[in-house]
Description:
The chain is of the alpha/beta class. The radius of gyration is 24 Å and the shape is globular.
Amino acid sequence: MNKTSIIPVILCGGSGTRLWPLSRAGFPKQFLVLSGTQSLFQQAFLRLQSLASSEITITNSLIVTNEEQRFLALDQLYELQAQNKVSAPIRFLLEPQSKNTAPALTLAALDTMQNGNDPILVITPADQTIHDQSAFTRALQKAITVAKDNTIVILGVKPTKPETGYGYIQVKDSVEGGANPVIQFTEKPDLQTAHAYLNQGGYFWNSGMFVLRASVWLKALQQFRPDIEKATQQAWQTHQVDKLSQVDFVRPDKTAFNQIPAESIDYAVIEKCPGSSIPISMISLDAGWNDLGAWDAVWQVAKQNAQGNAAIGDVLSTNSKNTLVIANHRLVTTVGVNDLIVIETADAVLVANKDQSQDVKVIVNQLEAGKREEKNLHRKVHRPWGWYDSVDEGERFKVKRIQVKPGASLSLQMHHHRAEHWIVVKGTAEITNGEQIITLKENQSTYIPQGQKHRLANPGKTPLEIIEVQSGSYLGEDDIVRFEDVYGR
C-alpha cells in the first residue's frame, strides 16, 4: 500500500502583540514557554510529527518565518534535536517582510511542488496549545484522508462560550468525526450574534489549521486572488537556498516579494470557497484547543489553585482570586485583588483587568507611536551566537552582559561612535582587535577603540560570558558596520 506523503507547514511569523510585555517583535509569543516545558513553536512542531503512521509519511517539514526570527526557531529546533525529537529534514522559507499568511502558504506550495510533487500540506500557526494530543492526531489524520480527494479541509472547534475574538464556521451537517461541508464563514461577531451561534448549533470556531494539496491551494488562489499568485510566483522564480548545519534557508527575491499584496489565507481563499468550484469541508477538533490570543486565554490554560490563581515565577498572593501573575526577575505579590493580569519583566510591568486583556494592543500601539524600544526588544536580546543583556545605561555609557555559545562568534565589525571595554568573567575569549588576535581568560580584559575592526569568538566548549562597557556619543544598536558574518546578516 502506498503511503500518503504529507508536509507539515508551520506559520511562524506572528508578533503576538496582545501578550506584551513577554511577547515582543524581537521575541514573539510562539517562542515563549507558556504551558509545560516547551515553547508554543516547539509544541506545534512536535504535534505535527505525531501524524506519521503506517499510512502517512512525513517527507520534510517547512517553517515559514522571517529573517529576524530564523535563528530563534533554529535554536529551539536544535533543542528538540538534542532530545532526538527531530527526524525529517527541515526547510526554512524566509520572508523579507510580513505579508500575512496567504503569500506564506503560497511559498510553501511552490516549494513543495518542485520536481513534479504534489504533497498534502498540513498548515498550522505556531502559537496554539492543544490539551489532548491523541484527539488532535485522530482529527488531523481524518483531515488528511479527506484532503487526498482535492478537498480543502479546515479544523473547527466546537464553541464552549459566546466568544467574540474568533471567526466562526457554519457547516451544513454537524456529523461527529465526519467531514462536514462548509456553508459560510463569519468574522468575529458581536456578543449577541455569538450567543445566537451558540444556541443555534452548527457553528464552530475557526482554528486557523488547514489540510490541502499544494496544487489545490494554487488553483484556488489563481481563481480568487490571481494578483497574489502571480506576484508570489515572480518572487519565487529567482529564490536562493543557503545551508547551515543541514538546514535549508530558502529566500525568495526580496524586491519582488515586497510587491506582493498582504492578505490572510482566510480572506484570500478560504472564505470564498463555499458555493464555488473549490470543495471545502470541516473536521471537528475536540482536543482542548486554545490560540492564546490574549492574557485571559493564558490564564485559562494555566495551572490554577483553588482560588483560580495562576502563578509563574516568584509570586506570593493572599485574598486574591482568578488572577494570573508572571514574575520573571523579582518577587511579585498580590493582596486582595480579583481578575487581574500582572506580568513583570526586567524593563516593563503590565497590570490589566482580565476581561480587558485584548486591549493590551492599545498599549503596544502607544509604544510604537512613541518609538519606544520596549515594543520590540526585551532587555535581554537573543542573537544567533548567544545573547546580551543591557544591565545599565546612562549618558554616554552602557553596560552589557554578553554570552557567546561554544564555537560561535560575532561578526567582524566596527562602530563609528563608541569604544568598548571587554572583561571576561567566564570561559575563554578569542578576540580580534584590529590586526591583533588575542586570547583572554577569566578576569582578563581588553579595550576596543572607536572605529577599530573587532570580533569576539568563543573557541571553547563551554559558554563564554563577558561584561561589555560601551562609551561614546551614540550607543544605538544600529551603529554597526559588518565586514564578515557567518550568519549572513
